[in-house]
Each structure stands twice: as structure tokens, then as C-alpha cells.
Amino acid sequence: MRMFKITACVPSLTRIRTQRELQNTYFTKLVAYDNWFQEQQRIMKMGGKIVKVHLATGKVGANAGLM
Length: 67
What we know:
By secondary structure, the chain is mostly beta strands. It has one helix at about 35-45, and strands at about 5-10, 25-30, 50-55.
């Protein structure tokens, strides 16, 4: 199974003290290839930004016929 290790930044809505101040929360997690699109949509809907993505396990180009 291929897993992506993603680092993302999302605004923290629980830590807002004023309307002008917004704190960002960075997190890193492993996401399965099959769940990648849903995870990407979830981060974008939260107003976040994906900072870095790299393949944690599996082969590069496995679904592209580049074996």
C-alpha cells in the first residue's frame, strides 16, 4: 500500500483572540493513496494549505505503468 506523508498548515479557529490575529497550525500525517483526494479536499475546505507531500511507502509511478 502506498502512503503519502503530508505536511499541511491550517488556520486555528480555536486560538483566535481578535479578528485580526490568526494562528496557523502545522501538522504532519500519513495518508493512504486511496484517501488522498478526500484529505486534500478536507484541508482546502478548512482554509489550509498543503506545504509538502512525499511518498512514505510504496513504489514511485506504480499506477502510471513506469515499473
